[in-house]
Amino acid sequence: MPPLGTRGRLEASELPSDPTLPGLTLLGHPVQLVETLSRPLTHWLGPDSRLIDSRAHVRRLSPGKRCSVELELVVDRDSGGPPESRRLLGKVYREDRGAVVYETLGDLRRHGFGAGRFVVPRPLAYLPDHHLLLVTWAEGESLSSLFLGHADVSQHIAGAAEWLLRLHHCGARTGRRYSFPGHLQTLASWKELLTEAHPADEPLLADLLARFEERGKELPGLTPRPTHRDFTPEHVVVHGDQFTGLDFDEFCQYDPRFDVAHFGAHLRFLGLKHFGTLNHFDWLADRFLACYEAGGGDLSREGLSLYQAIAYFKLCRFVALVERPQGWTHILPELLNEARRLL
Q1: How much is the CA Rg of the chain, to the nearest whole Å?
Q2: How many angstroms separate the Cα of 86 from the Cα of each of 44, 54, 83, 138, 223?
Q3: CA-to-CA distance for 336 and 317, rounded, in angstroms?
Q4: Are 258 and 309 members of one domain?
Q5: Span 284-336, pLDDT tens digits
Q6: Is residue 195 part of a domain?
């Protein structure tokens, strides 16, 4: 990230236009932002410190759901010396989902993710009037950046597998109890949206949904465990030997195999986007599975292939309805065909 002061403030006119996220308005008013943040951050700032300035930078917008912002803060100390720069991650939500994520992060930190090699960000405050969640900034590089940078990532992929395995066995009880029928309902709604965006794929989309339902009947009895449900290389940050898991908006009690399958699908999608082939990172996906299983992870190959197919279906939604990267009409058939192959 550029040093504090090398980027201008986010002006009100530069804010994303999303009436479902009224909390965004606060970010374009620096004086009000400083006043709003000062009290809930008192403990984190320290007894002899005060917030004197702030800048907000939009990191990611999910229209109608949430917006992630980087908050650069200028802190003055009563003891003297030059002002200190700090940063936080802020997330503005449509409703009170941020309050749930705040509780989730606190619970996970109490179940082994508060310090050491495998952690989650510390939740600092939730401001209900603005639906704004504040958490500590995760220093380091995302796994996806490391993979694309051609670094020696063999140990990084092993660390990601261990982080996930620890999550699945940590015993945290927060989060809603999710079910496969509920998952199918979500997929059915996405199928309708995808059909509108790409009508030619309607027969394949309908076939996939029917196969998901049929294969789901073969799943063994589910013992719900803590499940990230959006675990990707982008949501793991590496700093030295420390691994920080990010983005717990979808966290629930579900089948942990979905996380394993989801990570592998996103790893292969990374290869498709940047190198033109789903197979580019196969060796990393295989190592991830091997490390997870060697650590005691329970993987039935039948259930894993079903969840992998579902993860590709979910990626179709992301490609066609959310991100729409260059060449998305060519990427979409690749993902749909891979989902079909797995079933």
Answers
A1: 21
A2: 11, 9, 10, 12, 42
A3: 10
A4: yes
A5: 999 999 999 999 988 877 789 999 999 999 999 999 998 888 888 899 999 99
A6: yes
The pTM of this model reads 0.91
Count CB atoms within 10 A of the CB of residue 87.
17
User: In angstroms, rounded to a whole number, what is the distance separating the alpha carbons of residues 166 and 117?
Assistant: 11
Q: How many domains does the chain have?
A: 2
Query: Which of residues 107, 136, 165 is at a domain's end?
Result: 136
Residue 19's contacts (CB-CB under 8 Å, 6 or more residues apart) are none
Q: Which one, of 303, 272, 235, lies nearest residue 68 by Cα?
A: 235
> Does one domain contain both 333 and 254?
yes
Domain co-membership, 102 together with 132? yes
Predicted local confidence at residue 16, as pLDDT: 73
The last residue of one of the domains, among 136, 158, 190, is 136
* CA 70-241-59 angle, 5° bins: 15
> What are the tens digits of pLDDT across the range 222-271?
789 999 999 999 999 999 999 999 999 999 999 999 999 999 999 999 99
The reply to whether 130 and 255 lie within a common domain is: no
Residue 28 burial (CB < 10 Å; 0-12/13-18/19+)? middle
How is residue 269 written in tokens? Answer: 């999608």
- Are 41 and 89 within 8 A, CB to CB? no
119 and 162 in a single domain? The answer is: no
Which ranges in the chain belong to alpha helices (H)?
30-38, 42-45, 97-108, 143-148, 154-168, 180-197, 202-216, 257-275, 282-294, 301-317, 328-342
Query: Could you give the angle at the alpha carbon of 334 between the alpha carbons of 333 and 337, nearest 5°?
Result: 80
* 3-class secondary structure, 233: helix
Which range of residues forms the domain containing residue 305?
A: 141-342
CB 158 within 8 A of CB 284: no
Same domain, 68 and 163: no
If you average pLDDT over residues 156-169, what whole number do you get? 97
